[in-house]
Every structure is written in structure tokens, then in C-alpha cells.
Amino acid sequence: TTLSNFWIYPGAIFILLSGALNSWAMAENAFFSSVIRVQEERGHRVIRSGPYSIVRHPGYLGGSLYYIGTPMILDSWIGFFFSALIIGGFIARIRFEEKTLNEELEGYREYTEKVPYRLVPGVWQERTYPPRRYFKIRQTAKVTHKSTFGILPRP
Fold first, then answer.
1. Can you give the pTM of this predicted structure?
2. 3-state secondary structure of 123
3. Over 53-117, what HEC string results?
4. Contact 18, 63 (CB under 8 A)
């Protein structure tokens, strides 16, 4: 089955918003990159202005809007399935990126407290990564046994 022609207009709006949001994010963030790494050689720092003052990952939000709008314009229900897969990939990548930035980028942890939303304002604000101290304790703990979920430290 197909979507009604009505869905073409919201789809077009989503795609236009996607382009505007991604352009704004790239203009605000000189460190915007497709590679997850801290660019120490360029003096990488936390960006807190523009769309980064609202959500921590506006580029992924823009990409999500694009992948939601595309099946609307193409009149394709099956397209939403593939959009969901791609957005799921964005969410997995955001988790990895947050972990990397929390560990390697000075000031990022404080930024996450000031800007609690990762992707959509009002949605998904939990911090899944414990303070850096946890990682140091866990790395130095003596191992007493292995479990199905990995190596557990001595209690």
C-alpha cells in the first residue's frame, strides 16, 4: 500500500529542516566530523553554542529527520523500516561517541549536565557512563572469577 499524497508535504519539511539543522551544526562546530575522535592537534573543545545548546548531537537529529522524511516523499511504507534501522545505528553510534567524549574531551562531562538531551529535546537524557573514577577502579581491581558477562572485580 502507499501513503496518501498528504505525507509528501511533511516529508519535504522534514528534509528541509534536516538540511538547515545539519548546516547550522557544521557552521557552529569546526570539529564536526564523520570520524569519532578528539582532534587534539586542532585544539578540540566542547561546543556549547547554536544547536549544541539544545541537544548534544544535532547532526544525528538532522540525519534522523532526513531519514524520516524520505519515505514520506517517496510514498514508501517499507522505507520506514530502513529508516528505523539507520536511526537505530545513529543511536548506537551516539552511545559510543558519548563514551569517547566523556573519557577524552575535557569539559564534556560538565556539558552533558548543562545540556541533558542527546538527540531530541525532552527525550533520552540519561547518562549511561559512570564517572571516570569508576573506570580507574575497575581497571585496577583484582579478578577472582569470570562470569557470562565478562570479568568481575573482587567484591
1. 0.77
2. strand
3. HCCCCHHHHHHHHHHHHHHHHCCCHHHHHHHHHHHHHHHHHHHHHHHHHHHHCCCHHHHHHHCCC
4. yes
Name the residue among 39, 27, 50, 71 with its Cα closest to residue 115: 50
Instruction: Report the 10 Å Cβ neighbour count for 108.
Output: 17
For residue range 113-143, list pLDDT tens digits in order: 999 999 998 887 655 455 555 444 444 444 4
Angle at 49 between CA 103 and CA 26, to 5 degrees: 80
Residues 6+ apart with CB under 8 A from 32: 25, 26, 59
**Residue 4: count of CB within 10 angstroms of its CB:** 7
Give the residues across from 147 on adjacent strands: 150
Q: What angle do CA 28, 49, 109 make, to 5 degrees?
A: 110
CB atoms within 10 A of CB 139: 8
